[in-house]
Design a protein that fits this description.
The complex is a heterodimer of chains A (about 500) and B (about 325). Chain A has helices at about 1-15, 15-35, 40-50, 55-80, 90-100, 105-140, 145-155, 160, 165-180, 205-225, 230-235, 245-265, 270-285, 300-320, 325-340, 345-350, 350-385, 390-405, 410-430, 435-455, 465, 470-500; strands at about 185, 190. Chain A is mostly helical. In chain A, a hairpin with a 6-residue loop joins β1 and β2 (about 190). The longest helix of chain A is centred in the first third of the chain and has 34 residues, at about 105-140. The N and C termini of chain A lie far apart (about 70 Å). Mean pLDDT of chain B is about 85; it is low at about 25-30. Classes of the chains: A mainly alpha (about 500), B alpha/beta (about 325). At the A-B interface, α3, α15 and α20 of A face α2, β2, α3, β7 and α7 of B.
Chain lengths: ~500, ~325
């Protein structure tokens, strides 16, 4: 019962007027910046960081974390409406979300994203509350060998991301891995494939890449066919998911929450990967995998739940080990340190008001977000009625501003435009960008962990099978690969037989 | 010449003289009244890290003395050289300055790792503000209790592994120096920042590592991590019980620094004014407490002393990289 007691204490902290206000401001700003492409939670939090110096530490962290999970709610909006991921974790939402919008079902897509986020956020919180310490202990069991095998598992999910040719998906993944090699070599520190450009020294930015491949190329593609627009503006039916939508989404939301929460705990894992994993999992488990890519609501519900649960999971290493698993958590850590607090193993006992106050504020924040986001759906759907000749320049403008805002660097704008053109070319010849993005995210993790594991084992490849966690991950990925390739080969054969 | 023309010409001359006088006084006034508008402080890191927070604390304090806004701007990327270049190529008027580590201020030493479009010749050091503090750390229940133990362990297990941030960093420099002095073989495992090194130590994946002190403070308090030594010269106020490697008898030529830099050609009066203000801030107990709380050592050096230590650092680093083969042989 002590947890209940602690939680009540937490609500006592979170519901103080000042903290409640901080929570509202946080989730409100989070929703806004989630909707704006490019401008992610990191930018908004760093701008607001100095403003929190004058607040109490609890209010500061409540507001900043509100921005973080609020952005995850808002991030799906532009993915669904205009095929531009608001942040990297919403890339997969584009695949089916945008198709739903084209079929006039933007409302249910946005609705299920909001409800899914709410449910997953709540499930994640329960996990954070009950299991923070044991899970943190489990997370450090992942060394380089385990990570490498986990990333292999992630990469084997590629098979489920494409709905066309598997070969084309693999080619795109290869391109993604290659792009991820640009930048500093992790072992020697030397610059690779940078052509002497300092803008490439730290690699190609994920956000400009994603905004180019999805957003800019979408705008370019639509410039060719203005008449398709008619479909979008005429058939906007119900605004909320119906019974059938709920029936299809319930399980994906549950599974997405679990996967997102677990991957969120691992440093470097996080929201992006978990959304991909959830999508692949739903497609694999679905009885009608052919619906994916054509507006399946499961493909929106699962990943959106996953990226939200991952935000709760990410708090675990921060609060229990003092290790920030991503840049956003690093900012939160910084905000706490400015106030003279040091998150770590002793934090929960020494400063219960911070931990329980934040946890309780996240329950409050999730409710606020749902109240905030549901009425917004009606407004967002109306955005689609804006004529293309006004909407498109606006989208381009927001993308340009967003790309620049990432690190006040004009170079990122060039990267985005370049990938916009490349993405346009890819789509012309029917190559899908999602496998490229997944491989691009996994690439550096694969390489670093492979090399670290091999340095640690003095070059002995056996580490990947002698470490139990690693062996299990490798086994599952081999199983997935084989099970997805066999039907493909059989189909090929039957097609050949039919032809002959 | 007509009378009217004379009047016109002399009127013109008078006007010109008057204009010149105003301009020159305006010029003098500008220097005397620097700053008369907001100053930009460039931070070559993304927001949130201890260096970023330290720079922000400095900006806030400078604002109090200079009575004008000091705006902290993050320009991350290019291994800190994007931020470095932003200052190196800025107008030398004292309104664009930077808070830099060595990688952003002496990029010519690191040509093996990256090429920057500027060198230390394009920057004017203003003052040293602090020293980033790295550690040699092991897991809390490790049998290794001192640097001596670690050296013994490496002697018994040739090719012992140690987690570092990469070969251009302080951790590598110190680790290699120790290995050389003790004639042992340590193998460096590069990790992508403290957030990867610390879990690897906690999980027992590497026996030791060189994470930054701020990244392990809370784990030290909880006895999950032991810090064997700090990779600095003088014992830190905030960690009076932890020896430094210099105290342990290792020669230490690499005094890493964090300092304020201005573009080359910034007027001397402005550099002096900034230096004076930073000197006052570095003595403020409030500022020191803030920086020490974040596990960074406050260490002020004025312009002259700072220039000298940068040169020393540069020379030592050049020799080291040459010995390690981390140079580009231009033929």
């Amino acid at each position: 019962m002590s947890i209940l007691h602690d939680l009540l204490y937490g609500f006592g902290v979170a519901l103080q007027p000042m903290n409640l206000f901080a929570c509202f401001v946080g989730v409100f700003i989070g929703t806004l910046i989630g909707v704006l492409p490019g401008i992610g939670p990191v930018g908004a939090m760093s701008v607001l960081l100095p403003a929190t110096f004058g607040m109490s530490p609890v209010a500061a962290i409540i507001m900043l974390s509100g921005i973080y999970y609020g952005a995850m709610y808002g991030g799906s909006t532009t993915s669904i409406l205009v095929n531009i991921p608001g942040e990297a974790a919403s890339v997969v939402t584009c695949i089916d979300g945008y198709q739903m919008a084209r079929q006039g079902r933007a409302g249910p897509a946005l609705g299920i994203a909001a409800f899914g986020s709410f449910i997953a956020g709540t499930i994640g919180l329960v996990g954070l509350m009950l299991m923070a310490n044991p899970l943190a202990k489990f997370a450090v069991k992942f060394g380089p060998a385990e990570y490498f095998s986990l990333m292999c598992l992630g990469l084997s999910l590629l098979m489920y991301l494409t709905h066309g040719s598997i070969l084309r998906g693999l080619l795109m993944a290869g391109a993604g891995i290659f792009l991820s090699l640009i930048g500093q070599d992790i072992v020697t520190g030397r610059a690779r494939f940078t052509f002497g450009l300092i803008g490439l020294q730290d690699g190609v930015g994920l956000v400009p890449l994603v905004m180019g491949l999805f957003g800019i190329s979408e705008v370019l593609l639509n410039l060719e066919t203005p008449e398709e627009r008619m479909v979008l503006s005429t058939k906007i039916r119900n605004l909320l998911p119906n019974k059938d939508d709920w029936r299809r989404s319930a399980k994906p939301i549950g599974r997405g929450s679990l996967v997102g929460f677990l991957l969120g705990i691992l440093p470097g894992g996080g929201a992006v990967i978990s959304s991909f994993v959830s999508y692949a999992m739903e497609k694999k488990l679905s009885k009608e995998p052919e619906r994916f890519g054509k507006g399946a609501i499961e493909g929106v519900a699962g990943p959106e739940a996953a990226n939200n649960a991952a935000t709760s999971g990410a708090f675990i290493p921060l609060f229990s080990l003092g290790i920030p698993p991503n840049v956003v958590m690093a900012l939160l850590l910084g905000a706490l340190m400015i106030h003279g607090l040091r998150p770590g193993p002793l934090m929960i006992t020494e400063h219960p008001e911070i931990f329980w106050g934040t946890v309780a504020s996240m329950y409050v924040g999730n409710v606020l977000l749902l109240i905030l986001n549901l009425p917004l759906i009606g407004i967002w759907v109306r955005v689609l009625k804006i004529p293309y000749n006004i909407l498109f320049p606006l989208i381009l403008l927001f993308c340009l501003i967003g790309a620049y805002c990432i690190s006040s660097n004009v170079f990122d704008i060039y990267v985005m435009i370049l990938f916009g053109l490349i993405g346009y070319g890819f789509r012309k010849i029917d190559y899908e960008p999602a496998p490229l993005v997944l491989a691009f995210v996994l690439g550096p993790l694969l390489e670093q962990n492979l090399r670290q594991a091999l340095i640690l084992s003095d070059g002995n490849l056996a580490v990947f099978v002698t470490h139990p966690i690693s062996a299990v991950c490798l086994f599952v990925s081999v199983f997935l690969l084989v099970s997805s390739v066999i039907p493909f080969i059989q189909k090929k054969r039957s097609v050949l037989e039919e032809d002959s | 010449m007509r009378k009217g023309d004379v009047i016109k010409i002399s009127g013109f001359v008078l006007l010109a003289v008057a204009l010149m006088l105003t301009l020159s006084t305006a010029d003098r006034a500008a220097a005397a009244e620097y700053p008369d508008r907001a100053i930009t402080l460039i931070i070559p890191y993304p927001p949130g890290g201890v260096t970023d927070l330290g720079a922000r604390a400095l900006a806030e304090a400078m604002e109090r003395y200079l009575k004008k806004p000091v705006v902290a701007v993050n320009r991350p990327g290019g291994s800190t050289t994007i931020g470095g270049n932003a200052v190196a190529s800025a107008k030398p008027d004292g309104y664009t300055i930077g808070f830099f580590p060595s990688s952003a201020s002496i990029p010519e030493v690191y040509t093996y790792f990256y090429e920057a479009p500027f060198s230390s010749k394009d920057l004017k050091p203003v003052s040293k503000v602090g020293i980033p503090v790295l550690t040699i750390a092991v897991k809390g229940d490790s049998p290794i209790n001192s640097v001596k133990d670690l050296v013994e362990y490496a002697r018994k297990n040739p090719g012992a592994k140690i987690g570092i941030h990469g070969r251009s960093t302080q951790g590598y420099l110190v680790m290699k120096s120790i290995a050389k002095a003790e004639n042992i073989n340590l193998i460096d495992v590069p990790f992508d920042g403290d957030t990867k090194i610390v879990p690897a130590i906690l999980g027992g994946h590497v026996p030791a590592g060189t994470p930054a002190y701020p990244a392990v403070i809370s784990l030290v308090d909880a006895k999950q991590i032991k810090v064997l030594a700090l990779l600095i010269e003088k014992r830190a106020e905030f960690a009076p019980n932890i020896p430094t490697i210099v105290e342990l008898g290792y020669k230490f030529a690499f005094g890493a620094y964090l300092g304020v830099f201005a573009p080359k050609g910034t007027p001397d009066e402005i550099v002096k004014k900034l230096n004076d203000v930073i000197g006052k801030i570095a003595r403020e107990p409030q500022f020191r407490a803030k920086i020490h709380g974040m596990g960074t050592q406050v260490s002020f050096e004025d312009t002259k002393a700072f220039e000298k230590s940068i040169n020393q650092y540069k020379d030592a680093l050049q020799v080291f990289f040459k010995e390690e083969g981390l140079v580009i042989n231009k033929e």
